[in-house]
């Protein structure tokens, strides 16, 4: 037996430990986290003159921060759960690896209180996105956990300022406290609307913008329920992208319909004189509701909209329609029967809706069967049929699709991750199933999602 003393073993052990430590340091440097998000409770003033208790944010004393990711490069985010319940974070609209998609049991376990999870996101497409929990989703989003996420363009288009607008309601009473977050009878219809409209957690804020400058407004509707029509009045402005994808023909920012989960990028040329206020408003049955005002400040710097470089189209594969297989999806009432299964991610306690006659189980698209199995690399047409009298913004994770046609209206060939399916409408959309994994597929009216209108597609 070779003579190895106890001391040598110890030294060897120490050397091995030292080597391991060095390796660990090197590895942690290589894997340095770019950002830490802490989900926590807070109190904050939303309604002037009141303080709302029981809010949730990814920021210690204000709204969730705007995240800015580089296009095409990995970016890592540690989500630390400082709530007293499980959570999980989903990056809405990003075509990323399935394991990073943030859907409980489908892509990862929920993050328990006190635990954290590192997401590494390599976003292939530039544009405006958002992020939110996918566990106890209605409550966590309603209490504040919705933030804007920007994937920066590789080539800067030349704006003087970039201004994300996180548009959402809160359900507060006149004392500023949360009231019941939903009513079951509304969940079985269009959903329960909030009572206080906000932009970046403020009621009708005013933004000072350099007179004559070019500003990129990034509108993101992160509300749990509201399908709205928005108007930007004043200045010269064009909608340049919808749901992160540039428009070949920019359009006027009038009557922009946005459902929960949808976004619009507007290029605004701020007026030259201080008195010319630009306003963003929402159409309501009682008339326009002012959401935000933009006030020109200082001497005009006299920029022109045509100085902007056009946005580059995102590298989204084109479906091969000649060889595409069509898959039908029927959005309808619940076939009745089973109460939702209890879950660590909560349940609303009702089942009202279904996809292809199957009611999804609250937040958990599994452990049931996928609604469809798609072959990786193949093209598909999804025929989305809405049997119900309500509107449903239909959202697919992990892949973007192109709108082809509707039996109710002319649709522009937009590329999106969330399509508003109107009452009784049938719409066809096309995609290439290029991202392997199990991908959640659901309505983004969260009460609908959580009472049956959810499932998932498998790409293999
Ligand atoms: Cu915005 Cu399933 O998500
Ligand atoms: Cu999503
Ligand atoms: Cu719906």
UniProtKB/TrEMBL annotation:
Domain called Plastocyanin-like: residue spans: 50-155, 362-460
Record has Kinase as a keyword: no
Coiled-coil parts of chain: none
KW Amino-acid biosynthesis (keyword) present: no
Assigned keywords, A-Z: Metal-binding, Oxidoreductase, Signal
Signal peptide: 1-26
InterPro entries reported for this sequence: Cu-oxidase-like_N, Cu-oxidase_C, Cu-oxidase_fam, Cu_oxidase_CS, Cu_oxidase_Cu_BS, Cupredoxin, TAT_signal
Pfam family, one: Cu-oxidase_2
Domain of life: Bacteria
Protein name in UniProt: FtsP/CotA-like multicopper oxidase with cupredoxin domain
Species annotation: Aminobacter ciceronei
